[in-house]
Amino acid sequence: MESENPYAHIKEFEEVCNAFREGGASIDLMRLKLFPFILKDKAKIWLNSLRPRSIRNCIDLQAEFLKKFFLTHRTNGLKRQISNFSVKENEKFHECWERYMEAINACPHHGFDTWLLVSYFYDGMSSSMKQILETMCGGDFMSKNPK
What we know:
Elements: H1 6-19, H2 27-38, H3 41-49, H4 58-69, H5 72-83, H6 93-105, H7 114-123, H8 127-137
């Protein structure tokens, strides 16, 4: 499970649950009841080792699951990738932006404020990209208020 993306696992699970949701059934309860059936190996052992009734809702379940399977070194590596972002040689703006957004989406729990994410992206841009951006927004990009 270490090489897999726990967020992708949860997202896929939620999609399956939503597809089978019955009219009056609570989606939260349904997810709690179905989750054990999609786990295997280490993840199944982990779930069975939890104290009975220690997980009361899907938010608790997701938090515990990610704490266990989205390891700290993986989180730290992804956070470094975000904070040390830089444009590659001959990379177009839209390619650079897509790559940056992929890094952010790979670690939704990064904890960075929006202004800091914008700053990391801007700092990693080439001089020519910064110049184009400043021209497009009519002045100093970093002094603009994001709305």
